[in-house]
Amino acid sequence: MNPAAPRPHAVAELLERSRELTTPALREAVARLAPPMDTVGAYHFGWIDAEGRPAEGDSGKAVRPALALLSAEAAGAAPEVGVPGAVAVELVHNFSLLHDDLMDGDEQRRHRDTVWKVHGPAQAILVGDALFALAGEIILDGDDSIAARGARRLASASRQLIDGQAQDIAFEHRERVSVDECLTMEGNKTGALLAFAASIGAVLGGADDALADALDTYGRHLGLAFQAVDDLLGIWGDPRSTGKLTWSDLRQRKKSLPVVAAMAAEGPAAARLTALLTADAKKSREEFEDFDEEEFAARAALIEEAGGRQWTADEARRRYETAIGALDAVPLPLDTRDRLTALADFVVVRSK
């Protein structure tokens, strides 16, 4: 089974519902932060501009909170039951974005300057740390026994996410990374948090571990599909859609799936690419930043010629199919299953 073109109205309504239910609670959570972190956090989420004026910035795709709400419905609960989980997953996700932008030197996110660029590196670190701590508080505000189950899942997902980020950074200066190592890294960095998002609503709704674990599996493989698509967009995405520079991942020397799959292939394109990227790994950041567009374009062409682009697209489909298959292991309301499938379609068939 291949992912179908997502049903645009159904998915748009699902994501809009997620924003409507989650954003007020998320704003309340961020408002708990001490000044100026509350203001910096509001800027990061797109609620105000750099001068502190109200803004309607792009707050992201809202896939993770949508999963948390659907997860609650999968357990037979109202979607509102999943709101604390949706808020927690958004807080942890944005903690990682604040730190990632600083570590990667990214100056733009969602078509505007990143927090470290506007408010400085120290505030980016502090606000990221504060969002991470706040996520745990939000989960622990609930019923003791249920909150403990949710907090354990949040702690495990957060640790894996941080492991994945550490692996991602370490890979940048390694000459070779295997496909299995890359998949492990991406399973940690992206899959773990989507697994949490897809299961936390069910946990908060009182579901047993069988249902929560099946949804966790769905989310984990959906996360790997999501990251595979992100990796494609990180090289070949249109900057007008992604909000990032052309050849974004190549500029950062990321050993993403298209890169490692191409390097693992045989043939002259793979050999030439490997020679170039091996030399790149030894260059300083300053030397690397002197590259022109043609040099990045040449590397992207070699990745495609060696088969890395197609392999990654196929991997996204494989992970999508595994995610959908996990839903068959447990009884689910038919409309909830349909929405989980539509959301998975959206994740794999997208341009940003």
UniProtKB/TrEMBL annotation:
Alphabetical keyword list: Magnesium, Metal-binding, Transferase
Keyword Magnesium: yes
Domain of life: Bacteria
One Pfam short name: polyprenyl_synt
PROSITE patterns on file: POLYPRENYL_SYNTHASE_1
An individual GO BP term: isoprenoid biosynthetic process
Gene Ontology molecular function: any one: metal ion binding
Metal-binding recorded as keyword: yes
SUPFAM superfamilies: Terpenoid synthases
Family the entry assigns: Belongs to the FPP/GGPP synthase family.
Protein name in UniProt: Geranylgeranyl diphosphate synthase, type I
Organism field: Streptomyces zhaozhouensis
Lineage of source species: Bacteria, Bacillati, Actinomycetota, Actinomycetes, Kitasatosporales
